[in-house]
Amino acid sequence: MPWATLRKTPSDRASANLGDYETAIASFSWDQARGELAGFPDGGLNIAHEALDRQVQAGRGAQLALRWIGRDDAVRDFTYAQLTAQANRFANVLGSLGIGKGDRVYALLGRTPELYVAALGTLKAGAVFTPLFSAFGPEPIRARMEIGEANVLVTSQALYHRKVEAWRAELGSLRQVLLTDCAAEAPAGTIALAPAMARAAEAFETVRTGPEDMALLHFTSGTTGKPKGAVHVHEAVVAHHITGRTALDLRPGDIYWCTADPGWVTGTSYGIISPLTNGVTLVVDEAEFDAERWRTILREQKVTVWYTAPTAIRMLMRAWAQDPRPFGVPDLRFMASVGEPLNPEAVVWGLQAFGRPFHDNWWQTETGGIMIANFAAMDIKPGSMGRPLPGVSAGIVERSPEGDIRELETPMALGELALRPGWPSIMRGYLHEEARFRKCFAGGWYLTGDLAMRDSDGYYWFVGRADDVIKSAGHLIGPFEVESVLMEHPAVAEAAVIGLPDPVSGEVVKAYVALKAGLDASEALRRELLGHARKRLGAAVAPKDVAFRLNLPKTRSGKIMRRLLKARELGLPEGDLSTLESEER
Ligand code: ATP
Ligand code: MG
User: Fold this and answer.
1) What is the model's pTM?
2) What is the pLDDT of residue 558?
3) Best residue for ligand 1 mutational test, from 232, 307, 365, 579 (most atoms within 8 Å of Cβ)
4) What distances in angstroms separate CA 554 from CA 113, 181, 558, 561, 562, one per listed residue?
């Protein structure tokens, strides 16, 4: 590995929530983690009860729970008591409409305070919450609402008129549409939420759901194909809570910014639930990415823990290349990243720009919570996603053609990343896709569909999604390794690598590159990149071709869609594009 390990100091270790990894692993039990939550006397459990009621009962009512920053910089603050009261009102509104336990409440909203209130109020009411990206078009919205048999939609007037109204009558399950920005007279067939909230009582007794009651329905990102609806239950809060503490180092009083939109699982598990169960103040920015704005938020809000994603980090790196001022964020204690492999270059850039490294962690919509992480107290090997969390048992496995599963114990053996089921936030199913769900489990493992390696220190290294791995002249090539090497070149802002069919080698590696601001593509640069990759990776692994793009196709959650690059290159059908972000090519 060409990147030096980043050593943590004794004071890093002493101050981290998870101090000594081995001790934490040996002493951890999920039962004990469950014991840190309040629950109900009869063994019941409710996510919102843990996020709000428990905090208020513990005397945290006056503490800031949510600081919302509007697009126009307007700020709205909610203490734990105020957020609880709002969620209670929302639950009462649902109750008055006959919506309760098990009913499905969807939100189609930008990052507004109402989204957070709706999520928590829905859970309090014992109903099931599903967030949708507000940028989705009408079709993806409709498809997801059909799959989940939505009963209620919480949205804004503009989104309703633009994206829902035309087909609303055809969705038989949909009983109510609540509009968040309608002061009085609501359009036909809808209800103005604000006046209904104002009329509703501020007290509400959280519904005593059981740990196995369905709480959340989350759709996957659609990076590899049609999104799946993953079912999560209230028990998941045990994992949300404890992993926020171990993997994100959250502690009461932290000012925490999770940049993920609640339209995908990170923005809910770690953008709403985990920070609140941990007594943290969450910062929410309504606006889209803007390097200068982010710099200001981190500094002025005195963010202490920041959870973001590789795409955003790479965009910041891109902007920083032109304006390399240090971020000046003395309050920032811990920075973490998820969603895609984090290039070593980006981890180390953190040291230059922030004076501290990014901590990569790995999980999926299906796992409901962080499974593998670089912890605050642990040395970082840049490019590795870290080690399994306490309570999580991971392995690298191989499937034989007959379907038997064998664990690969040899360090750096390449295989599928697998987890032993048993953690509380594992999905309970793919809605209406039982066979697909069952296929994820074999030989006592949950199979993730990602390929990885584990080194002799127990660190995991992401290689690629099983679908994206390239087989060339007898080599298995992970796109991540090649992309990371391209990223080392000072001109490269982003890279994606795919395999293209080749009569001689089986597949050859092709790279797509987006350049940093102000740089122009040229034949000389193309050759330079090919030469750089060949020098670092050897001819067998290096790309045979590099193409320049203004941007790479990504999901709305910021994941590079390699399958789309490949389909376009080969003139094949592009498949489900419901999560594709609009592109500037
Ligand atoms: P779909 O399953 O619909 O194709 P998706 O897998 O992108 O979409 P998510 O559940 O949002 O949907 O993403 C989980 C996947 O993201 C993981 O399986 C992995 O491929 C990738 N991922 C997440 N975190 C990391 C990480 N730290 N390093 C590498 N890959 C990661
Ligand atoms: Mg997936």
Assistant:
1) 0.94
2) 86
3) 365
4) 27, 30, 5, 5, 9
pLDDT at 126: 98
Give the pLDDT confidence of 286-303 residue by residue, as tens digits: 999 999 999 999 999 999
Ligand 1 atom closest to the Cα of residue 228 is: 3
Nearest CA residue ID for atom 28, ligand 1: 341
Give the whole-angstrom CA distance, residue 220 versus residue 228: 5
Q: How far is CA 124 from CA 129, 266, 537, in A?
A: 10, 20, 53
Distance 557 CA to ligand 1 centre (A): 10
DSSP state of 388: E
Average pLDDT taken over every residue of the chain: 95
Ligand 1 centroid – CA 161 distance (Å): 32
> Which DSSP category does 5 fall into?
P
Q: Which residues line ligand 1 (CB under 6 A)?
A: 220-225, 227, 264, 338-341, 360-362, 364-365, 385, 448, 450, 462, 465, 557, 559
Name all domains of the chain by residue range, CATH numbers in brackets: 10-454 (3.40.50.12780), 468-570 (3.30.300.30)
Q: Using an 8 Å Cβ cutoff, are 472 and 505 in contact?
A: yes
Tell me the one-letter amino acid at 128: V
Q: Which of 226, 228, 261, 363 to mutate to test the pocket of ligand 1 (most atoms within 8 A of CB)?
A: 363
Tokens of 453: 């390696």
pLDDT digits (tens, 9 = 90+) for 191-211: 999 999 999 999 999 999 999
Confidence of residue 185 (pLDDT cuts 50, 70, 90): confident
